[in-house]
Structures are given as structure tokens and as C-alpha cells.
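Below: protein 1.
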Amino acid sequence: MLPPFPSKGLSAWGEPPQITGSQVLTNPLLNKGTAFTETERDALGLRGLLPPRVFTIEEQLKRTLNSLRRKPDNIEKYIYLTTLQNRNEVLFYRLVLDHIEETVPLIYTPTVGQACLEYGSIYRRPRGMFISLRERGRIAEILRHWPQPGVRLIVVTDGERILGLGDLGALGMGIPVGKLSLYTACAGVHPGYCLPITLDVGTDNLALHAGEAYIGLKEKRVRGAVYDEFIEEFVTAVKTVFPKALLQWEDFGNTNAFRMLSTYRRRILSFNDDIQGTASVALAGFLGALRLTGSTLVQQKLLFLGAGEAGTGIADLYVAAAKAAGLSEADARARCWFVDSKGLLVKHRGDPFPAHKAPYAHDHPLVATLAEAVETLKPTALIGVSGQPATFTQEIVAAMARNHPRPIIFALSNPTSKAECTAEQAYTWSDGRAIFASGSPFPEMTLNGQRHVPGQGNNVYIFPGVGLGALVCEATEVTDTMFLAAAQTLASLVEPADLAVGRVYPPLTKIRDVSLRIATAVAECAHAAGLARLPRPADISADIQSRMFQPIYREYI
């Protein structure tokens, strides 16, 4: 069961911590800074260690927000927020929740991409665990070094495919840290349950080997049996040390991501957010877009630019949804087309296909470019998951608009610098008729008197709720059915007022309610499938809500 935090290892709310003085002030889960009351200062030995004035959290928030907004650029704001998180987690999460549309782009996409690139230079103090090849044979021992024994949620990367930036090795730690911050902010998983991990298996980015600030192993990335044995030891160690933990695979390269998901998804409670979370949020946006086009799921033809984890994951979930809507699997797959680095994915192209691509290689003449594919296939939706910026050109967007009254154009690659096109381009080149969503945020605009608010197809709408739902019922597996339910739930929360301005996702300000609804749907799926270890509560939603962390100071005395 997932009790309200703290659990064993930290003091219960309402009781004085077992540590005092500077130890309290340096523990971000316990520290309240200048908000400690007069009574607490005496009981905890804080007299003289703090300025004499006692501040409310509202006063602290005002000062903190002013300081944040004075920072000159987003990377400085990222550093400021990270420092705040390392000092006072309640205040950090209160700031994020109260100003979520302003802060989420700073603690995650798009700013986290630049933060990863500069991670070695901006590194201040450890947050999470770095487990390298040097720890082979000792991973369980290393995991026990983590100070909080009740870990329930791990986000792990090996840094090979960080967003659209490629192999960043140990610099990829910014991704697990950022994702877990979103779990707490958006779904109320207490930060004390969370553990970010980077597996350092080397990097093939030779520029990092030459960099003075690189914090990881300056070795080529290992592959083959050595890599597989390392991952196997890691998974076994997690199951031993943290037996109730959910493991989220993040930003692994295509070669390993699909294979590891297949190998471990039933051996340990786990999922791959790049494959399954991206699929779910894209499908939700797609379902929202259909409410604007007036067409049905089974009438669509999807063209993907990029045939990696994200693209084929979206296609697989579309197939599952289309089958539920009445199509055969073959007919559903026939509605999904891919353009990769070698052109249109067709059966007789001459190159061998990896397993995740093969089901989408159709009988069709070879087409060399995306522009030709758009003209030839006339897709209803164009979905960019390539990491190749500016690839949705004016010619391509205009062709989509010429072929369909309301073309669906999703430029999902992250960070912003990797987007296939901007919102302004999509709207302008389609004369305001495109239904647009992107991975990173773009500002709204007005064209021909019509307000357009681009949807952000960010996985933050999906993975926090899915993880929370799996944890509260102690699910034994995270299934594709759960991700389909998450997509359908998210799509159902898009209101007519959102659609009126072209937005196919709810506002981010509603993210806690979104996560609660998705967590409830996921737990319902687990109970229905017999995958929940805990008995079904009378009111699943109320039970989950009672367990969500609220960033409110508690009185210790």
C-alpha cells in the first residue's frame, strides 16, 4: 500500500524529526527555512541558525518567485530552481504548482535539454545515483547507499538518446531528475519515494571524452553481452533492494529500448515512457483532433516522420485503439505509414528492418522524400518524431492543407530546437486550418482574427498518472491497455472551450486533476485484469487522492 509519506526512515508528520540543528536545515524533505515557528526553533535547536523573523510560506513564495523572475535566462532559472529543490522541497513544489505553466518548461522541456548539455558545468550537488560499469557485481550494495529505504519509483536512463540531442552519457541525469520532479508536482508522488538513476556505460560522443567538465566515464559505450549482463544485474538489484518499486525506462537508444521493454515488462513493474507514454499522449491529442475534424478513428491515414521508439509506439497504440473501434489489425496497420532516413518504409526497399519497423513496411513503390510521401499518400495526419528540425516545410504543410480541410500536424520532437515546425508556421502555412500540437510549448497567436492555442503533446500529461495508478494498487504489470485507457481519459478531459481555440489537450493548470483521473483509470484496469495485489477500495479516486503529496508545511511541534 502507498501510505501518505513519510514512511519508515523519516519522521511522521506532527512529530519532531529525530535530527536537529543544521541537520534539519540541510535535509530538503524536512527543511522549512525561515518558516520554522518559534516553538520549533527551540525544540529543534535552530536558534541562531536562522534569521529571527518567522515567514509564512506565502511570504517565502513571493520572495522566491521574484528571485526566479530576475534570472537573466532559462538555464539560470533552471539552476535556481534546482538549488531551491535541494534546499526546501515543499517550497519548491508549492512554487511549481502555483505557477505551473511558467515553471514546468523550466524544470523539464524545453530547458532540460540545455541543462543536460551543460550538466557537467552546472553540477552543484548529487541528486540521484550514478551507477557505472565500475560497480558491476556490487549494484545491490550501491543501491543500499541511498538514504531513504522506502523507494517506490525509479526513473533510469543510460543517456544514449536524450530527447532529440543524442548520446549525452552521464549528462543525461537531468532527465530522470526532471521526470521525478514532474511525478511529484503533477501527480503527488511524495519526493521521498523517488530515486533518479543514471547507468553510466560510457558514451560514443567523443566530444564529451575531450571535455574538461564531463562527469562520466570517458570510455566508448559498451554493448552486447557486457551491457546486457549489467542491465540484468541492475534489474535484479532493484527487485531485491526496492521490491515494490516501479521502474521507468527513459531515453535509451532504439536498439536497447524495445528489447529491454520486452524482456523486463513482466519481470519487474516497469514501462518505457518514450515508447508507451509518448504513444498515449499522441493518441489522446489525435482523439481530440478528431472532434474538430468530425471524422472517426478508422477513417484516418497517419504519416510519421521518424520510425524509432516514439513513432512506432504511437502507431502500435493507434492500432490497438482502431481494433477496439472495429478494424482488423491488418487494416489498422495499413493506415500507418513511415518515412525514415531512407525514405518511405516499404517492403522491397532493400534494407533489413528491425522488429519494431517490420509490421509497418507496406507494399508500395519507393518514395524518397517526405514531401513526395505527403503528395502520394495524402495522409490526414502528419506526425513528427524524428528529432530533425524544420522538416515540415511550407511546401509540406501547404500540401497537407490542400488535401484536407483540417490537417492534423503534430511536431512532437523535443526540445524546441528540434521541432519539425513551429506553431506559427503550421497555422500560417495552412491559412489557420491546421490542428497543431508539439512536444515543447509554443506561444498562442492570432491569425485572421482567430485565436490559436497550440496543444503541447508532452508526456507530463500521461506518465505521472500512469505511475501513480500502478503504485497505489501495487500492480504487477503496466499494460498497453492501461496506456490506451490513459489516452482515452486525457482526451475526454478536453473541453469545448479548449477545442474552440484549437487546443487538443487540457490546460496544464489542470494537471493534478488529469493525473488523478488517469491514475484512477489505470488502477481500474489493474483490478479488472487481476493485476492488482491490493484489494479494490470502495472509491478508487478518493483513495488515490488521499495519498497525493500536498506541498504544505506541517507543524512538527
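Below: protein 2.
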Amino acid sequence: MFNPYHFNALAKEVKDEFTFFIDEISALFRDNIDWWVTPIASRDTFGYFFFQEVCYALYAREIIKEDLPTEIVCCSRGLGKVIKSLIPLGIQVKISITELWKTRIDKNECVKSLIMGQRQIKMVGSIVYGLFEAFKKHQAAKKTHNLKLTFNSEGGEWIIDEFVFPYSFNDGNFESRHYVNFTDLIKADWVYLPTFIDIHDFTKTYRLMRQNDPPFIIREDFLRFYDYIWSIGHIFRIVTFKRKSVTFRAIDISSIWNEHLFENIDGRINALLNYRLPKRLKECSIEIQGIIDWFENQIVDKAQNMGFRRAYPSVPIFGYEVPYFSEYGMHLQPTKMEDAAGIIPDVVGVIGKEAEEYVKYYNKGLKTCVVPALGYQHLWDVLDDDADKREYVVFALPLVTNKAFEILNIAQETIKISDKEIMCLIKFHPSSDREEIFEYLDSKNIKERFYYHEGDLSSALRNACVFVSSSSSVVLESLSKGIPVIIVGSLTELTHNPAISSVPDDMLKICYTAEDLLKNILFYKTVSEERRARFVYHGQKLHEKYFEKTDKISINRFRECLMSLANP
């Protein structure tokens, strides 16, 4: 009975009301960092499911009114309680709990209820994992402390919020995946503040970081034992946010609220340690000119920004935002309340003119600046225009494993029902768990049905007739190259349709079934040269709107914006 079109339409209808609802509650806790690192306050629909579960409850109410089912499958006990409260008295409906995507991927899996204590077990496991990771980082910092490369603490430097991957160091030199050549293009005293992605050998990574120029701030060099204790204390402090009753659209969602209040504790411990770091830097008399925040308005951003605001109230924060466009990407659109709470940057830099309107959706007064798309300069490379080579269907797998499984599952079904050969090229996310993905492919006996691409996105697109993925920045990259896109819609969750109004209908499709996907793949494999030329034309227009080229003009604009913040 689940209709993804109706469900997504409902989510689109309520997203603004939901944002204002969260803002009203946030006004009560605007100065409380413990509130801002909760999944509820984050409004993040990519990493958390609070908004989605609220939408499930609203959707369930509609279904129950129209045609009462005999069984309802949902993804959490909290949601199950809400749905049970919506069922008329005296009517028996079975409520089953499972990870919803498994009902799509593993069709033969028996749907079972979660044990009563599983949520508590997950919370304890999350805390233990967070402490284990913190301990590993602390030990790595201690082992490598004698290699410390000091930075200029007197004149003041600009801090760059930077991601560190296992492949980030080439011959000992750090190579930024996102701020490509940035420190060479804009000369200043820079220092990196790392966020780790898929790093397991912290000793090796810290050794490389300490020998790098520009230097890195090693968080563990400054944090104290009390900071760890205080961060763990978050699990006790958030009890004050529990509610006996929370009503949204005349539905009591308190059981969903209270469940999500205790989600992702390890991520919150990490965010709160980032919040404590500026205080310790200040105590060490380290002067800072400004901060460049890789801004996605996630809990780690909120915590870090609030920490710097309190320790360094006069130091400006510049947010560099990436082009993730979604109808439900509300957290990428800061609100006035978040601005008033001091958890977002002074200025948000967007890498394309069209992004300004999207980012300012909830706060028209938000200061923005168009900056060069430093990590997307490959988009100016010219694709091979040999039509005979456009034979591959490129499946780009997202970072989230269950989303990747959904795409692979529908790809498998599509190949099965096709009487024509379809050459499928798999493009992994740089940080995806390939071992887990290959295990899944082996379990389905379909590993040999695909080709696997190890290069970058541009090389994957060279021979593509169509690009298949879920919503992410790679969708916009493909479209800007004139390569049509098929979004694999979820049959159980929100489908993050890119909010790009200027894309022609025949260039971007959303498919929920293998039959629909096959029809569109065959359409794109046989499009005329005239239509393909039109795709390229519209791609160039998108390119101009959403990606700012790195040149003298854009670099000078970026530099002037930073300098004006540092010297108002």
C-alpha cells in the first residue's frame, strides 16, 4: 500500500511547517549546545530519520483512514507506538518492526519485532564506540607528539575545516579533495583542522599530519580529561529534552521524539569535543584570524561554530557550502533561529550563483558570497564526443550502504528482465565500504554482471549514455556535462529529488521499478544526436549557474570576502 509518489508529496507539503516547528522549540534552548547536537534540532534528512518518521506517521494516518491494512511494517518501536495510537479502538492490526530497506532488498527475510532493549543496547554500543575512537586518537597523538610541527600562535592564522581520508597524503604531502590548490591560490597563514573519514590507523595519519605544511591542529594535544567526561555527560543532560507529549499536525509524536533524542551518541560526543577545542586553544593563547567551515549545517558544524563563537567572539567564520540540492535538504538551508543562536557562519560561500536562492530559502537576510568551485574544476574538461562510445550505464553508488544496495538491487532486476545487453559500470563512492558491497553482490551472484570503475567521475562519464544514482552532488555534475540522469527512487524512504527547476523533463527521470528503469535506459541509449546536443546545451547552462570557475576574478572575490571579514 506504500505509494512513494504520495509519500514524497506529503513530505514536500509539510517540510516548511516542520522546520518552523523545530525552530519554535529551538528558541527555548538556543544557548544550549546539548540541544543543537541532537538529531531533532539538526533537521538533517540525509544522516537522520526524525523528519522521515514524522512523515511516516502522517502518511500512516492517511492510509488508515482510507483502507485499514492487516499489517504495518515500520522502522522503529517509537514509530510503531505512534501508528498504534492511530488505529481505531477494537481493531487488530499487526505492527512489525524492521529496517525498512531490508523489506526491499532481502525479500525472503522474515519481518521480526525488535527486542525491547535494542534501542538501549544501540545507545550503549554507540557510547562505547565513541570512547574507543577517542582513546585511539588520544594514543596516536601521544605517540607522535615529538613530531609536532608548531604553527604561528602569535600573529594569528586562518583555520581551514578539512576532511582527511586514507588517500589524502601523497608522498607525505596533504592533498585536499575539496579545497583543491586553495592554499596556493590564496596566500595566508593557514592551519588545518581535520575531520576524519574512514581513518583507522591514526598513528600513521597523525605522523603525516604533524610533518605537513600547512600544519594541522591535533585536537588531542589540547583537550583535557575533563572535556571527555563533560562530553559523555551529554547523555544525562539531554534527559531534560524528553517529552511526555509533542504534537505535530494533531499527532502525538513524543515516542519518535524520545527515541531519536538518544540516536548517534558517538557522533555527538565527537561534535562536543570539537565544541570544547576552541576553549582550550584560547587558554593556550593561540590567536586566530578566521575560520573556514566546510559548511553542511550538520551537528559537527553547529558545535564547532558555537565553540569558536564563545571562545573567539570577534573571529569571523566563513562557511564553504557544497551543492547538495534536495527538496528535503532543509538542514542545508539555515534558519533565522540558527543564525540568532550563533551556530552558522557569518557568511556562507556558495559555488554557484543559483545556489544562493536555495541556501537563503528560510533566511533571506543570510549573507552569501559566490566562490570558486575548487573541487569541481574537472567539469571544465571536455568530454569525448564520440557517439559510438556512449554505451555504458553508469551506476554511481552513494556513501550510505543501504542506499547503495537499493541501487544495485534495482540494477540486478533491470538486467534480468532486459532482452538487450546493458553494459553497467559501477562507480564507487570514494569512502564506501567496498568489502560489504562485494559481499552483497556475491550473495546475489551478480558480481560478474558489472564493470567496476576505479577512476574519477569525469573518466566514468566519458562513455556514459546515462547516469544512475540517488541524489548527491554527482547528479548535478553529470547533468552539467550533458549526461542525462536517472534517480533511483526509494520504495521505503524519502527520495531526495534534486531541487533543480531548470532541468528539462527528458534529461532527469525518477524511477521506482526495474521496468521503469529499463524503459528509460533504453530510451537514453537510443536518443538522437539532436536531442543529445540539446542535453549538452542545457548542461552548459546548468554549469554556468551552479559551478563557479576558478579564475582570477573568482579567487579575488573569495580573497576580498575573507579579508573584509577579518578586517571589518
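The mean pLDDT is 87.
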